């Protein structure tokens, strides 16, 4: 079989950027080959902007954004979009909240009208009943996705161990039941006025639209919404070394699972791309190091995953391995650390790096097949790098990776700085937890 | 804040532009393999979907899970490559090979950037034509499957689904199992059972290949001839679709999960095959009942009462009568009321014609949503493969929008009365028995059987 290194793929996301007088940043990406349009609005607020005692609020607020505004009363948002064949949703992360509509291109104006109405006229339609109803929905979301799910509480346990309690990454996006209960209508008003202003948001319109017609429409619906105060900076205390922190969580599970978590470089900072590649080399696909060693050769693990969870104030690198029944988690930890040390010691073969690069390149291009994926990328680059046109530079971060820089990054962040170690074990089976070294 | 423009009414939206469905070219290789090609210029991507016309419905109940183990074993070793070597080769090409079993087929999906298509094709052909099913890998994969089944039974949703399938179809019916089988049935599957499924069904005449992407048929066909030429033809072995199971009076099946914060609910019964002439009324019906955010079930259980994070319903269309399932996860104290609402909404859509505005919204949501299903090369390949597998006709996509928009309230009512049967439902609840059993018994929806 011939080894051909094809010419690197270039990704073009042609776009125009305008900033309205009220500070709303507008990014338009035209692609006449697509019969759809994506409207993608990022508010630069996430759970990092919450305070202790009100955790989960940014996400609860996201739910309230779908409950009607002054001119589009409750129920109209979804009904109107469905009636033109559109879908919509939103999501909240630690760093930002996004809202999107994807619909046939001719219906663009409808989505703009709806988004503008809730940016400008949400509060006149807000009621205690809406807050209470969505609080119940979110509490059910917490039950369904976390409390009633095996291993569902692992990640928030790790966050609390990685960060001091006053650090905004120390709590999960979903928040705690007690804090959700404590949220008031006054909190809703304050939060909206502080964070949901046009100057704290960026809007992408992408797809089969005529760029020259988009801007006047955006101006028509968003232009008169007044600028808000500058959102306050997030105050995050420095993170401490986490070496030696070992935790055990009992759960209704059959298979023990090991979580290793480290602090790592922020999104797009030096080392971020190297750790994405390290995650791929460690655990993406059957030929990856940990899959091969733990699942294939030694048969001690059921599955293994690794991620660089990139974030604005600093990231989290995670390795998660599920053991076969009765296998002590120390065995998984020992082999995982051995593989990390091997990479740091320069044992990475050029072929492994090439495989990781090619995997990442394919995944990168894939995401751009979806018009919504393109819209979200433009907003992501605008928010994290300041430059919506960062796509090719981003891909370039990966294509230029080499074994040496990956080894040095793994050494600095994953080998020289020991992780938080969480063992999730079946009830009564503390004997399976990892207590090494 | 006052507005200087009139925001009182939503802007009017004109008629949608016509949708041009992907054009399919059909070819045949000498060994009988049918090839369907859709040219899609743009990003340098090619998606291939090789479909074998045999899936889990072909498995005897005591060997449930066999088709999915065949799917998992295909890339665990071939005449030229070990499992790891194959994975390394695919990674080197940045290619993704995903092999899955459904009730009706085994699908091999290859996704690759155009410049690396040729070597990736060789790997696909190697996997489909020359797998060796090494004994040691069969043992390992089976052990993994057994541990995975143990893990899945800790998930309330999986437990509800496993129970629902068993009681809705009854012992002996292929659909009574789950695709991945049970710990008992997987024990009965070894190398011999896997190889026999392969030899029976993996024939070029029992398969077809869909190719979508940045490539011309003229460039593609010589590559396919070279890659798949060695795959020997033989008589295909068609699999007959399963029959409709015997209907049983409505019964509540309660699975105890002490201390559970929520109850997982699945309600339904066997319904229609994919080939039903009532397909379009059924998908419109389901959109109204539980297939969209504004559907009746989601509005009643989430938006009006806050019982859940979401509620919905679906018809799982297969060659045989796949199930209708309405489902949600609700907090424990409202389990009985949620079940009452499920039953009431299923009755209501059979008793009353749907109002015109609700019908219009549902029809538009399904019809005008078609372009969202055809955005990517992988989505197009999957859609074209389904049309071919289920024999839906070459004009299926061209007529889709008009057919959905032609569905009437009377047709929805007739479909509801033909395919929804509130007197013969399996109502499965996985939850905290100590807190929900008495209220469930008091509902009057049927006897309660503890599983």
Account of the protein in words:
The complex is a heterodimer of chains A (437) and B (451). Chain A has two domains: 16-222, Metalloenzyme, LuxS/M16 peptidase-like (Cytochrome Bc1 Complex, Chain A, domain 1, 2-Layer Sandwich), CATH 3.30.830.10; 246-432, Cytochrome Bc1 Complex, Chain A, domain 1 (2-Layer Sandwich). The longest helix of chain A is centred in the N-terminal third of the chain and has 20 residues, at 128-147. Chain A contains 15 helices and eleven strands. A six-stranded mixed beta sheet of chain A has the order 1-2-6-3-5-4, with helices on both faces. By secondary structure, chain A is of the alpha+beta class. Chain A starts with 15 loop residues before the first strand and ends in an 11-residue tail after the last strand. Chain B is α+β, with helices and mostly antiparallel strands and 451 residues long. Chain B folds into two domains: 25-228, Metalloenzyme, LuxS/M16 peptidase-like (Cytochrome Bc1 Complex, Chain A, domain 1); 251-450, 2-Layer Sandwich (Cytochrome Bc1 Complex, Chain A, domain 1), CATH 3.30.830.10. In chain B, 41% of the residues lie in helices and 18% in strands. Chain B contains 16 helices and twelve strands. Chain B has a six-stranded mixed beta sheet with strand order 1-2-6-3-5-4, with helices on both faces. A six-stranded mixed beta sheet of chain B has the order 9-10-8-11-7-12, sandwiched between helices. In chain B, helix 12 (356-368) runs antiparallel to helix 14. The termini of chain B are far apart. The mean pLDDT of chain B is 95. At the A-B interface, helix 2, helix 3, helix 4, helix 10 and helix 12 of A face helix 2, strand 5, helix 4, strand 10 and helix 12 of B.
